[in-house]
Design brief:
By secondary structure, the chain is mostly helical. Helix content is 61%, strand content 0%.
């Protein structure tokens, strides 16, 4: 079986699956209600898919939850590693430092 694409995708999928199970609905039922292919929906639950914003909102709506609850406390540390990750604050600080060094 394939591994989730990231910890973030795994957690999102678990939250969606847990809510679906509480509703006692099948993947096919949720996928149909959300207007999506059941295979793609299954990938999201297994952490193998990366839903776009509209898909996430549709799934949340079908599940009867606010989309924010599905991604709550999933941060950058849950994403796949990159060579370097900078925040906007890092960028602004560096730009200011370089700007003052030029003068």
């Amino acid at each position: 079986m394939s591994e989730p694409i990231s910890d973030a995708a795994r957690v999102l999928g678990e939250r969606i699956r847990n809510r679906r199970n509480k509703l006692a609905l099948s993947q096919e039922e949720i996928a149909n209600l959300a207007g999506m292919n059941v295979s793609n929906y299954g990938k999201i639950e297994r952490g193998l898919g990366n839903p776009n914003f509209h898909t996430l909102v549709r799934i949340a709506s079908v599940l009867g939850v606010d989309p924010g609850t599905l991604i709550e406390k999933i941060g950058a540390e849950s994403l796949p590693d990159r060579e370097e990750t900078f925040s906007a604050a890092d960028f602004i600080r560096e730009r200011r430092a370089r700007g003052s060094a030029i003068r």
